[in-house]
Each structure stands twice: as structure tokens, then as C-alpha cells.
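Help needed: design a sequence for this.
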């Protein structure tokens, strides 16, 4: 896990290494100050402190304090640079990893979980990292140096520190062991909480139209209360850390002061003098405060360990779809062939989503696909651009297995307008240029004309510079579909797939779009998935899907005569009798 996370340091590795070294200088300065004070106290007690001596020691103490302050400020700057840079790189690496996932990988992680990992989890790890390179270095060094100086100044009396360490170590181990499972549960519930928020924001119109605000608020309250209870349990256990440390601190100080005073009085300063006792008290305070700081680091590491594991799980997830060793960088034509293809979304799934699929499509043909909900129409077309890989059999595009192509090359030549049309915040031009970032204004207008999008764009005050809100919330469903079709056309693909992407437009506009595609891009293979028979009836071939298999293939007229499923759908949509459909 640590090896994976350290890879994200990169250009901030220097600051990460410099911080512990600078902290070491800070610790040395702080440990020398009590030693100098002890020497000064002894001189004062012996009556040997002249004004020159006071000025000399005062200057030394001032210099040590300024150096300690300088090293501390410097360490704070480098630690901040290192931790903030580490967090930035980690977010970037996590986002890049998710961006390169196949659909199969994305299916393993929910969107809300990925958001939590990229925000809360990385923040936890970033804070823990800052504490590790600064506090976790400072505290042990302070303990070692202070204990060493205490032994030099107080001899055997300093051994009292050793009795507190096993007590604190056992206590910390118990606290960590009890709290870690609780934090693991809390972070899993954060994912659920984020999912609830995301679902409600996306569906706010539905919530309001059904007047379900109170129900959703109550449901959210229960989820928040559940998180609070788990977090409270974990925090109660971690809260034991402070009183435990304070108990050890005050116990050691009481023993040091009691036995130290006894030795000063009984030995008349021979075994231990006042200066040594004062420095011993300071060192004991430094040791125990450092132990308390160390315990805070352990607490932060405990909280961040689960976050780190969740981040690493995403970083270590390898895309199930990768480029071949020697990829092909050119798609010859729009021919498509499915040969004995079967597919299921998970290797553990009991049934196939698609089974024994055999299709041959020639470049330039228009193919319609119809079928009931759950007949795996979308699953079929996702195999063409390798959004998923087949479980059995092979898919060919341009007479080559899709697994032989460079992924970018293949997906540039297979444009897919999915069922769920997504627009991003930005102008209409910005969104359209997702299809081709180099597209000219003329090419954009031509694509929009083919998709019948110019009909509403020209009516907007700012035209193609009109700003689209996130998710395309300020345009209608039909407008969004037409913009997504135009965006796909700008890719100038050899294969264009419309996955029920004209369902929100009227039949007249649907017909105009299909006519435009037929006339202006005749060489492009067009696959149209539709619920409306009218959208596919003029296709060269129509594929009828049923329960993940091909039920029939034929023209509109052939299927009306030979296929009961197709005839039933056509009849229900056109409200004609069986005899009229023959």
C-alpha cells in the first residue's frame, strides 16, 4: 500500500525528504535549551553569574530559540508543500485511473464511492502524510534526544520514563485495534450517504413533483444518524488516548519532582543539583508531550489507514481492456461481424446477457435493432467499440478483431450515442467539439443540420455560444439527444450507433434525422436501436432481440410476415388489426 501511494510524490519528493532533516535541527535546538538553562541555574546558585556570564548565556539561549523557530517555520513550509502536492498528485492519479477503466471496472465501484475516495479519503491520507513527515519524525527524535539528555543530567532518575512507555504502547495498541473496524464501517456508510445525496440532487424534480421532500429528508436523517453513531463509538475509543497520556505525563512529573527534590535535599546537590532537576523536569515534559504527539499521529494514521486502502484499491485496479502489444491504427471500413459471441457482465454471473450471436453487417448499411426491455440491445452494441470484451467468440470491425485495434483508433471510428445522453457544462460549441476538437464552425453547423439541432440553436440569443448547464439541465431531452447526435457526427466515424437516441424527439424530426444520415453519410454503417418501429422500418436489415439472443433478422416487410414479436410490436404501435399488418 505504501509503495503505491509513494509513487504519487514525484516532484514533491525533495520536500518530503527535506522536512524530516529540518525537523531534526529543530529538535536539537530545543533539546540544547534546557541544558544551557541548567548550566546557568547552577552558576547562579553558586554565585558565579556575573553580568558578562548572563549576557553570554542569554545570547546563546536567544540564538538557540531563533534557530528552533527558523527550523520549525521552514519545516512547516516544506511539509505543507509536500502534503498538498502529494494530495494533488494522488487525486490526479486516482482520476486518471478511473478515466482509463473499462465499463467492467467501473461497475465494481459506485460513483458515490469514487467521489468519497477522491475527496474525504484523500484528505485523510494527505493530513496523515503531513503528520508522518513532520510530527512522526519530530516526536521520536525528541523522545530519544530528551531521554539521552535526561540521563546525562539526572542519571538513574531518568529511567522513570521507561516505565511509562510500555503502559502507553499497550494502551495505544488496544485503542487502534478497537477503533479501526469502526472507521472501516463509517467510510462504507459515507459511500451510501453520498449515493443518497447524488440520487436526490439528480432526481430533485421527481422528488418535488411527488411531494416526497419530507420522506427523503427523514431517510437522509436516518443515514446521517447511523454515521454519527458509528463515528461516536470510534471517537469515544480514541478519546481515551488523551487522558491516558495525561495520566502518564503527570505521574512521571510527580515522581520526578518528588524524588528529584529528595535527592537535592539529602545529597546537598552532590548527586543532583537544582539546575539538573530543572532540566530533568523540562526533559520529562518534552518526552511525554512528544509521546502525546506521537499518539495523535497514531490516531490520524488509524483513521487514514482505511482511506488509504480504499484509494489503493482503485489505483491498483487494472483495466480489463488494454491495447494489444502491436495495435492496428487504421480501421479499413465499417464492416461488422459477430462470430459465436456470448457475453456476461461478470465471470461469476449465472446467465449470459448475450448468447450465441452471429451477425454480418456490410459497410454503409443501416441496421435497426428492436426488442423488449432487457433483451440486451445495448449490451450488443457496446461490444463493437470494446466498452466491454466478449466472454466467448469474437467481434470484427473492418475485417479485423476489435481486440487488435488501438483503443483510441477504434473508438474514434465507432461513434456511439448512448441511451443516457450526457452534456457537460460549457457552450454548445464546447460540447460539440468533444466529437472533434479541431472542428470548424462550418463543420459544426453541418453536423447540427444533419441532427436537426440547428432548428433550436438558431433560435437561442447566443446561438452556438449558448452556455449549457452541467448535465444539460437547461435544454430539453429531445434537444439534448440532437446535440449528442451532432457531436457523434463530428467524429466522422465509419460506424455510427444510435442507442435509442431519438426517443425524445417527435416522429417528424426522427424521420428528418434518418433521411439526413442516409443522404449525407452513405458510406457510414448506421446501427439504430429503437423502441419505435417507425425509426427502423426503412433499415436495410432489422435485428429482433429477445432475452439476449437474436430472434430474427430481416427487412420490415419480411419480419411483418414471419416474426410474431416484430408483428406484435408493430401492431401495438400502429393500432391496426392483424390482417392489416400482413
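Sure. Designed sequence:
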Amino acid at each position: 500500500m505504501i509503495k503505491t501511494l509513494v509513487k504519487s510524490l514525484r516532484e514533491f519528493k525533495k520536500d518530503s525528504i527535506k522536512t524530516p532533516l529540518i525537523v531534526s535541527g529543530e529538535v536539537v535546538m530545543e533539546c540544547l535549551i534546557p541544558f544551557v538553562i541548567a548550566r546557568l541555574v547552577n552558576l547562579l546558585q553558586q554565585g558565579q553569574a556575573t553580568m558578562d556570564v548572563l549576557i553570554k548565556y542569554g545570547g546563546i539561549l536567544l540564538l538557540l530559540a531563533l534557530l528552533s523557530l527558523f527550523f520549525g517555520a521552514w519545516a512547516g513550509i516544506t511539509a505543507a508543500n509536500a502534503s498538498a502536492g502529494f494530495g494533488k498528485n494522488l487525486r490526479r492519479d486516482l482520476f486518471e485511473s478511473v478515466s482509463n477503466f473499462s465499463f467492467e471496472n467501473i461497475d465494481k465501484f459506485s460513483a458515490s464511492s469514487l467521489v468519497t475516495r477522491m475527496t474525504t479519503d484523500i484528505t485523510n491520507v494527505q493530513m496523515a502524510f503531513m503528520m508522518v513527515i513532520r510530527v512522526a519524525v519530530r516526536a521520536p527524535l525528541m523522545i530519544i534526544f530528551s531521554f539521552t539528555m535526561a540521563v546525562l543530567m539526572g542519571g538513574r532518575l531518568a529511567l522513570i520514563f521507561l516505565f511509562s512507555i510500555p503502559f502507553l504502547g499497550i494502551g495505544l495498541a488496544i485503542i487502534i485495534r478497537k477503533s479501526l473496524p469502526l472507521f472501516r464501517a463509517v467510510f462504507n456508510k459515507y459511500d451510501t450517504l453520498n449515493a443518497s445525496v447524488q440520487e436526490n440532487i439528480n432526481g430533485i424534480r421527481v422528488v418535488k413533483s411527488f411531494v416526497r421532500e419530507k420522506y427523503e429528508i427523514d431517510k437522509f436523517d436516518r443515514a446521517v444518524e447511523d454515521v454519527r453513531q458509528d463515528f461516536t463509538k470510534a471517537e469515544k475509543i480514541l478519546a481515551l488516548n488523551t487522558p491516558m497520556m495525561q495520566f502518564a505525563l503527570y505521574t512521571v512529573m510527580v515522581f520526578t519532582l518528588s524524588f528529584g527534590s529528595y535527592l537535592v535535599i539529602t545529597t546537598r546537590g552532590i548527586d543532583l543539583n537544582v539546575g539538573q532537576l530543572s532540566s530533568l523536569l523540562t526533559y520529562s515534559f518534552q518526552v511525554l508531550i512528544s509521546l502525546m504527539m506521537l499518539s495523535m499521529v497514531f490516531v490520524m494514521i488509524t483513521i487514514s489507514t482505511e482511506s488509504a486502502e480504499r484509494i489503493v484499491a482503485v489505483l491498483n485496479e487494472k483495466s480489463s481492456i488494454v491495447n494489444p502489444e502491436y495495435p492496428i491504427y487504421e480501421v479499413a471500413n465499417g464492416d461488422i461481424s459477430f462470430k459465436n459471441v456470448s457475453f456476461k457482465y461478470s465471470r461469476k454471473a449465472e446467465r449470459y446477457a448475450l448468447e450465441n450471436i452471429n451477425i454480418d453487417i456490410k459497410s454503409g448499411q443501416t441496421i435497426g435493432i428492436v426488442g423488449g426491455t432487457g433483451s440486451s440491445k445495448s449490451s450488443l452494441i457496446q461490444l463493437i467499440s470494446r466498452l466491454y470484451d466478449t466472454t466467448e467468440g469474437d467481434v470484427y470491425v473492418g475485417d479485423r478483431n476489435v481486440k487488435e485495434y488501438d483503443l483510441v483508433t477504434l473508438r474514434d471510428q465507432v461513434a456511439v450515442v448512448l441511451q443516457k445522453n450526457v452534456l457537460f457544462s460549457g457552450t454548445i460549441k464546447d460540447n460539440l467539439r468533444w466529437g472533434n476538437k479541431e472542428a470548424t464552425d462550418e463543420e459544426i453547423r453541418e453536423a447540427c443540420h444533419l441532427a436537426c439541432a440547428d432548428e433550436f440553436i438558431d433560435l437561442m440569443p447566443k446561438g452556438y455560444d449558448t452556455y449549457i448547464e452541467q448535465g444539460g439541465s437547461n435544454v430539453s431531452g429531445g434537444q439534448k439527444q440532437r446535440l449528442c447526435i451532432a457531436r457523434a457526427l463530428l467524429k466522422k466515424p465509419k460506424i455510427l450507433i444510435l442507442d435509442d437516441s431519438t426517443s425524445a424527439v417527435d416522429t417528424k424530426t426522427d424521420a428528418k434525422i434518418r433521411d439526413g444520415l442516409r443522404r449525407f453519410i452513405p458510406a457510414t454503417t448506421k446501427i439504430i436501436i429503437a423502441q419505435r418501429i417507425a425509426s427502423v422500418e426503412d433499415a436495410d436489415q432489422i435485428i429482433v432481440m429477445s432475452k439476449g439472443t437474436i430472434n430474427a433478422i430481416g427487412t420490415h416487410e419480411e419480419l411483418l410476415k414471419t416474426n410474431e414479436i416484430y408483428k406484435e410490436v408493430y401492431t401495438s404501435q400502429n393500432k391496426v388489426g392483424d390482417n392489416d399488418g400482413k
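Residues 577-582 have pLDDT under 50 and may be disordered.
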